[in-house]
Fold:
Amino acid sequence: MTNGDKLDGGGHAARRNAVDVQVGERLRERRMLLGLSQEKLAASIGLTFQQIQKYERGANRIGAGRLYDLSRRLDVPIGYFFAGLGPEKPVHADRSAQIDPPPQHRRESADLIRAYYRIEDPKMRACMVELCRAMARAARPSRSPDGLVLT
Structure:
């Protein structure tokens, strides 16, 4: 056996599958976006939180029936878990080289999105989006027409 291998239930070597890792990451992303703990999600579909942990790491494959239950509980279509897979964007099971998580996987992003959707007034939400855009523009250094950074 090599690093990354583990024994499956029958004593055979098994590897983490890139698709299982992707599905697990999407599961974790959606769970966090909804503000659910692993315990609450697990209890709502009759699992233990350890099973959810293994799914999220891609250590255990999620069966079709369980994926259906998760998609209903998390209010997403089943295809949500596979978004981004395909020949144009390969997924690698070895994520150890990744230092910083992408912005959409950071806890602060999920917190911001949850807070945004708690604003009931659509006009107020639109103002919040415009405020964020203005702040992002202000945070960028100004550039002259010839590409020099102006201070």
